Amino acid sequence: MSNRLFQGVIHQMSDAIDRTIGVIDESSVIIASSDLSRVGEVFDEAAMEAMTTDEVCVVSNCTFKAFGSRLRPSYAAFVSGGDPDARRYVRILSVALSNIKQYYDEKYDRGNFIKNVILDNILPGDIYLKSHELHFDGDVSRVCMLIKVSDKNDVSAFEVLQNLFPDKNKDFVININETDIVLVKEIRESIEEKDIDKLARSIVDTLTGEFYAHCSVGIGTVVSNIKDLARSFKEAQTALEVGMVFDTARDIVSYNNLGIARLIYQLPTTLCDMFLKEVFKRGSIDSLDHETLFTIQRFFENNLNVSETSRKLFVHRNTLVYRLEKIKKLTGLDLREFEDAIVFKVALMVKRYLTNNSIK
Fold first, then answer.
1. Cα–Cα distances in Å, from 197 out to 116, 240, 247, 321?
2. What's the predicted TM-score (pTM) here?
3. Is the pLDDT of residue 250 over 70?
4. CA-CA to 75 of 20 to 30 Å: which in 44, 160, 167, 319?
């Protein structure tokens, strides 16, 4: 808890209460006071009596009232004097300080707690204890979205996202580093995957369209328990990493839709090299020019339909057949055959994965 926050409240209330007022911690040290010269001073007897009761108590001609956690209060407000006015003032002061502490805890401590959870910086057993302490509902469906901002400008993407998701009790916007921001979004039971994709699209459109901050979003799977948030976050990271390798044109990538790319991304490069050497003739895949690769891509997009692909490419059907025959001679694979097409598709993805690794 920030001592400066308490000091700000004390400073404002000192105009209304014509007495010395302040806050002590559990060690009886004055951490905030209307008399700044007393900050750091110790009340020898105060902590033991003030922190062990919910009632107002008078010690050393000062009136104290504990606030904070009900089980173990960490702070106590004090007002000089032991008269009825001092008792009334200290009750008012403790309520104001307790409210500002609760607001601070919900806004900042919860955010730090969630950050530690998704980064695996907290033990599983401590997650339940801390969530109970913060009155945090751990059995609610949530999803992690990783927003990676690639263009730096004067606009703070973090602040923009905070404004987009103002409900601090349900949604958490967490700054990981200069480029990565995580949104932990509470999800209702009726929400479907397409709705989450629409939400991601609105984030990209807002940052890119209105603030000219180019970004991409990785979406993890929906989890129903707080301890699984770290997994959802790692999935969002994987989605972005895989998307950057296999589908650079997409700015929104969902872990659920990675398909075979997720499997290839987890393979060792030595195994990938062996696969390419076993499937293709030496150098055959490298001999394919840009036009041929573009033709193959369109052929796959049109479900191996020769007529539809030739129409989309604005070429004669026989021209496309000639190109496919040429590919068969070079690689030994006939893309008109389903099994050969699968092998070729996987091979292209493996090749792209290896190329990306070599660049790294």
1. 26, 14, 17, 38
2. 0.66
3. yes
4. 167
